From TrEMBL:
The modification 4-aspartylphosphate is found at D68. Keywords: DNA-binding, Phosphoprotein. Residues 17-133 form the Response regulatory domain. Residues 156-221 form the HTH luxR-type domain. InterPro entries: CheY-like_superfamily, EvgA-like, Sig_transdc_resp-reg_C-effctor, Sig_transdc_resp-reg_receiver, Tscrpt_reg_LuxR_C, WH-like_DNA-bd_sf. This is Transcriptional regulator, LuxR family protein. PANTHER family: HTH-TYPE TRANSCRIPTIONAL REGULATOR YHJB-RELATED, NARL SUBFAMILY. It comes from Rhodospirillum centenum (strain ATCC 51521 / SW). GO terms for biological process: phosphorelay signal transduction system; regulation of DNA-templated transcription. The keyword Ribosomal protein does not apply. Gene3D superfamilies: 3.40.50.2300, Winged helix-like DNA-binding domain superfamily/Winged helix DNA-binding domain.
Length: 221
């Protein structure tokens, strides 16, 4: 982005406002089209810097801050934490070329609601935007009994290795958006058996729901 642009619709009542910093992966139409596909009727408000984004979030009562870390990566993790704190309660979704343990730690420490690698592509980003707006956390992080993050480091590939061959078949269908009934029909299983497998898959992948499980596949190298 070379200039800031505030759409005229941004101040209309009921309009969802998503402040965008950097250059998120998108198809034709840029940030506007990306946001419109993720949340019909929403508008993208493009910012030049993290400081500008902070001002826009305050001025327009933003619903989400989408921050490209590669474009505005602070030299100190405390700067990112301060930004997340300053725009609260606006949720922050981070994009990064690196979604490894270090990036995850920084995101968790800062209080971001989501972290997605750019390699996931525009479709995964659209889903992530919609989910974070509904209150879902999208940090690629295992669940710990006491909310601890000191075990970060288990990659998506390693998590998927936990699945049996049958569970991997079901997972692949889950990623396609198949219902339990469709999966049961495709695999010649009872629907109740599929439900049990799905619950086990979520536990093994350390995710909370089917959508997070599907997005985990986007983190694969």
């Amino acid at each position: 982005m070379t200039s800031a642009r505030v759409p005229g619709t941004v101040q209309r009542p009921g309009v969802r406002r998503i402040v965008v910093v950097g250059d998120p992966p998108s198809t034709d139409g840029g940030a506007d089209a990306l946001v419109a596909r993720a949340v019909p009727g929403a508008v993208a408000v493009e910012a030049l810097s993290s400081g500008h984004a902070r001002d826009l979030c305050r001025a327009f009562g933003a619903d989400l801050l989408l921050l490209d870390l590669d474009a505005v990566m602070p030299s100190d993790a405390s700067v990112l934490a301060a930004l997340v704190r300053d725009v609260a309660p606006v949720p922050v979704l981070l994009l990064s070329g690196d979604a490894g343990p270090g990036a995850v730690r920084a995101a968790v420490s800062a209080g971001a609601r989501g972290l997605l690698p750019k390699s996931a592509g525009p479709e995964a980003l659209e889903h992530a935007i919609a989910l974070v707006l509904t209150g879902v956390d999208l940090i690629p992080l295992p669940r710990f009994p006491h909310g601890r993050a000191d075990g970060i480091g288990l990659s998506p590939t390693d998590r998927l290795k936990r699945l049996t061959a049958r569970q991997r078949e079901i997972y692949d269908l889950l990623r396609e958006g198949r219902s339990n009934k469709e999966m049961a029909r495709r695999l010649g299983m009872r629907e109740g058996t599929v439900k049990v497998h799905v619950r086990t898959i979520l536990q093994k992948l350390d995710v909370h729901n089917r959508t997070q499980a599907a997005l985990l596949g986007a983190l694969l190298p």
